[in-house]
Amino acid sequence: MANLTVVEPQRPSPLGDLAQDFLADCRARGLSIRTVEAYDYPVRREFLPWCAGEGITDPSQLTPALVGRFTARLLDEGGKRGTLSRASVRSYVRSVRVFLGWVAKADGGAAAVGASPKMPKAEQRMLDVITRDEIQRMENAAKTERDKLILRLLADCGLRLGELLSLRVEDLLEPRRGEFALKVRGKGSRDRLVPVPPHLHRRLKRYLSGRGADSHDRVFVGLRKGADGRYAPVTKSGVEQAVRVLAKETGIEKRVYPHVLRHSFATEWLRRGGNIISLQRILGHSDLSMIQGVYSHLDSSDDYQAATRVLMGQ
Fold first, then answer.
1. Which of 32, 144, 181, 244 has the highest local Cβ count within 10 Å?
2. Which domain CATH number covers 258?
3. What range defines the domain where residue 219 resides?
4. 187 counts as catalytic
């Protein structure tokens, strides 16, 4: 009879323990599932195995030279899933920086971090947007008022898809007489008010009244009741497919998906000379850096046209 060898399970390194604590803290703070997942994979599946390969078990062992090699490896060799775009490398490195920043503050700063990975320079790329005319053509092609309203809230309010799907009837507000808004639950469980044009607000109210929706019901639901006699909320994939089909039916050749409508809203706002601080609040960004980086495709002609409208009233 062959001798059996008992293999003791490997205990996580101090750095691995901190990673588990970090992710648990993210969940406890109410961060969205997508945000936690965005931290989880780069930290546990990419950074920790790289540290193990380098013989790093404690954050105090990290040095600028060592951590620089982590970013370089992602750029040169990719990750466990294969080659990575520069944008993906930036996303991975950003997650690791957040983790190491959390470690530096853990236990009153007792866990020292010697270095943090540098962010690779972002690629300058043109942002896909669609025109107001193209958006109107897509709305005209939509078969139901529900689909028309979904399109309009994405294009005229700049909502993220997840924010649109989570809307409930009670989130339609009139904070001031004649001024309408949506209470939106954004990233990091941060609520904000997003302005809604009066004509769009009236359409929403008619749609919900015709459906006999209660205050706690989701704004957007399926067209038919389920076996339980209730309408199920529309799904992420359902909206993505609807937007894609509408774009194809109207002859738009570029790739169109819900987030393109958000980009198009922001681009149009800036081209019309809209206040960038107001745009930051409407979009739900914590600071201006995202807007300044993402919407750098606007050129000097856009600046001139915006100045003309603001300063000369044209």
1. 181
2. 1.10.443.10
3. 132-312
4. yes
User: Active-site residue among 160, 168, 211, 309?
Assistant: 160
CA 87, CA 68: separation in Å to the nearest integer?
17
285 is catalytic: yes
Q: Which one from 259, 263, 271, 309 is the annotated catalytic residue? A: 259
**What does pTM read for this prediction?**
0.63
66: CATH: 1.10.150.130
Whether 259 sits among the annotated catalytic residues: the reply is yes
Beta bridge partners of 79: 82
Examine the domain organization and report whether 140 and 216 are in the same domain: yes
56 and 173: one domain?
A: no
| Co-location of 287 and 248 in the same domain | yes
**255 & 298 share domain:** yes
Confidence of residue 314 (pLDDT cuts 50, 70, 90): very low
In terms of domains, do 93 and 143 share one? no
Alpha helices in the chain (DSSP H): 14-28, 33-40, 48-53, 64-77, 86-105, 132-141, 145-157, 161-165, 198-211, 236-249, 258-271, 276-283, 289-294, 300-312
Can 295 be counted among the known catalytic residues?
yes
Mapping DSSP to helix (H, G, I), strand (E, B) and coil, where does residue 110 land? coil
168 is catalytic: no
Is 201 considered catalytic here? Answer: no
Q: Which amino acid is at 211?
A: R
For residue 2, the model assigns a pLDDT of: 55
Domain count, the chain: 2
Look at residue 228 and tell me whether its pLDDT is greater than 90.
Answer: no
